[in-house]
Structure formats: structure tokens, C-alpha cells
Amino acid sequence: MDRFRKEEFTLMFSQAALNASLNGISALLLAGGYAAIRAGKRDVHKRFMISAFIASTVFLVSYVIYHIRVKHLVLFQGQGWIRPVYFTLLTSHTILAIVIVPLILITLRRAWLEKFDKHRLIARWTLPLWFYVCVTGVIVYLMVYQIYVAKSS
Asked: Among 92, 94, 29, which Cα is nearest to 56's?
């Protein structure tokens, strides 16, 4: 691909934006799943939660590919009071993103095995943490790639 076409493609496709979109979609699916189970619609809940798991899995694969391909960090450009806010958000997001993976797998396994009492116990922790990770992933993207972007000379 010549240089012009590569730059054109890069403008049309941002993997970081794709990753943020997948996080946002996961958050919406989780909210739908929560609403469905509160309404007693177990089958609808199941479809939402499986869809959220798929969207999050696609996100994770895309995120790993992105970081293998890019091979550098995009540094946060915000200055002043927003820096500690950003790094607090990023730190909590990163720690919980690591913790949430086994929680999701355990929660889904318990549902799959129809151990709904045990599923419900862990899901009370998994859902809000998973939702937080998804939403903060979108916020981190917006802060790094949209709001506090390095100024071009």
C-alpha cells in the first residue's frame, strides 16, 4: 500500500477507536442483561450476557493485536489537575481489567452449569466491576485520543 493510501486507511480506521467502541458496546449489553434479569427475563439476560462476553473477548484480542502492532505507548498529554484524575482512573481501570477476567469466567461457568445460587453471588460483584472496566475504557480512550491530544506544530 503506498503512503497516501496507508494514511487514508489510518484516518478511516482507528483500532483504538474500535477498541473503545467494543468496550462501549459491552457496557450497553451488560446494562441490557441487568435490566433483563431484573425483569425476570432469564433467556434475554442470557443472550445479552453472552453477547457482552463476545464483545469483550473481541476487544481483548483487538487490544493485544493493537499493542503488539504499535509497539509504543501513546502518552497522556493533559496537564494540571487532570493528570492525577486520569492516572487514578487508568490505575483503577487496569487493575480491575486484570481482576475481572477470572471473575467473568467463573460467573459464566456457574451459569452454564446452572448453579444459579452461586452464579448470583459472584455476579453481584462481576457485573458492576465489568461495567466499570468497560466504561472507564471508553473514558481513557476519549481522554488520550480525543480530548487531550498532542498539538501538531
From this structure: 29
Whether the CB-CB separation of 20 and 138 falls below 8 Å is answered with yes
Residue 127 has pLDDT above 90, yes or no: yes
Map out the domains of the chain as residue ranges: 3-147
Cβ contact 138:18 at 8 Å: no
Q: Give the number of C-alpha atoms closer than 13 A to the C-alpha of residue 65, restricted to the C-beta side.
A: 11
Which grid cell is 113? 452449569
| Record: fold of 3-147 | Four Helix Bundle (Hemerythrin (Met), subunit A) (1.20.120)
d(CA 19, CA 133): 13
Please identify which residue in the block is written with the cell numbers 462476553: 53
Q: What is the pLDDT of residues 22-47, one digit of tens each?
A: 999 999 999 999 999 999 999 999 99
| Residue among 139, 143, 147 nearest 23 (CA) | 139
